[in-house]
Specification:
CATH superfamily: P-loop containing nucleotide triphosphate hydrolases
Radius of gyration: 22 Å
Number of strands: 7
Bound molecules: guanosine-5'-triphosphate, magnesium ion
Strand content: 5-15%
CATH class: Alpha Beta
Structural class: alpha/beta
Shape: globular
Number of helices: 10
Strand order of the largest sheet: 4-2-3-1-5-6-7
CATH topology: Rossmann fold
């Protein structure tokens, strides 16, 4: 009895036991490029070359689209805020059924030059949003408060259909929202739907990014210490899955933790949200600049 403990030479079974790979990388897969004050200042003072930039969020039901909008608003106001209704019970049916255009603020009564279009989830028990509707939305044909019709896309005679949209009505950046804890289990048809939307955006020259939410639910290390996000092997793997399946390069993928429980602000949560926001603003602004140059 106890022979395995008393002997110093390992048995053959021990020799072939797989050595678990470390969950923490020795080098980060992405480096932080500046501090929170600098990035917050850059974002708060951002002046686009149009009155307001417009971005659209799209992705599967429950991915965290509405939560991301609220997180962006919280970072700008440095307090708890709820401008988009979130879904706290995941039923498989999209909670957001209307197209809502959220206008962000950077202080009480002070508008921020970013509008966010929150649309219905891509995949849901009731069929989800129609691809044609997404495309019409980013071309600027759908007005705020339009209720999606599960059986058909918007028609030209609908009062919420805008016939001749201007550059301000159009979407200047497509933000695909995926949750880190479910991306590896997502069905191929959802990725296919996303790819098609992305390709349509590419034809219009609209830049695209992925915001990967719920990192705290996908990695124990990150759940305990969000600062480890760029040192987490698991998060890097999830980012790779997003990139390969949606076809968006790694340098346009932003892992974030949304505010979902806390009522107070957290500098680390803010830092990752701000990193995503800063790049989205720049990409959207570059697009608007290209469109304006075309008109010259
Ligand atoms: N822990 C954690 N929970 C999150 C995070 N992001 C979102 N959630 C939660 O996930 C659930 C779904 O989030 P929503 O923002 O409602 O998702 P959605 O994409 O808007 O969903 P639909 O409108 O139904 O398409 C909510 O309970 C959120 O509080 C995150 O980063 N971490
Ligand atoms: Mg929503």
């Amino acid at each position: 009895m106890g022979s395995r403990l008393s002997t110093s030479s390992p048995s053959s079974a021990d020799v072939f036991l797989p050595v678990p790979e470390p969950a923490v990388l020795t080098e980060p897969w992405r480096k932080m490029d500046c501090g929170i004050d600098e990035i917050l200042h850059e974002v708060k003072e951002f002046k686009p070359n149009i009155e307001a930039l417009r971005i659209v969020l799209y992705g599967p039901t429950g991915a965290g689209k509405s939560s991301f909008i609220n997180s962006l608003q919280r970072v700008l106001l440095n307090r708890n805020a709820m401008i988009a209704l979130e879904n706290s019970t995941c039923t498989g049916t999209s909670f957001t059924k209307k197209m809502n255009i959220h206008k962000l603020k950077k202080g009480r009564g002070v508008p921020y030059p970013l509008e966010i279009v929150d649309i219905m989830g891509l995949q849901s028990a009731d069929g989800g949003i129609k691809e044609e509707d997404i495309i019409r939305a980013f071309e600027g044909h759908i007005l705020d408060d339009y209720t999606f019709n599960p059986v058909g896309a918007i028609t030209d005679d609908n009062p919420k259909h805008k016939k001749n949209p201007t550059l301000s009505d159009k979407v200047h950046c497509l933000v695909c929202v995926l949750s880190a804890d479910s991306v590896s289990r997502m069905e191929n048809n959802v990725f296919e739907k996303m790819k098609q939307v992305r390709e349509s955006a590419s034809l219009l020259g609209i830049p695209q990014v992925i915001v990967m939410t719920r990192v705290d639910k996908a990695c124990e290390l990150v759940s305990q210490d969000l600062k480890k996000i760029y040192y987490s092997k698991k998060i890097k793997e999830k980012v790779d899955v997003c990139s390969v399946n949606v076809g968006i390069p790694l340098n346009a993928i932003y892992p974030v933790k949304n505010y979902s429980e806390s009522i107070t602000q957290d500098l680390v949560i803010d830092m990752f949200i701000l990193t995503a926001l800063r790049d989205i603003l720049n990409f959207a602004s570059d697009y608007v600049e290209r469109e304006l140059e075309k008109d010259d």
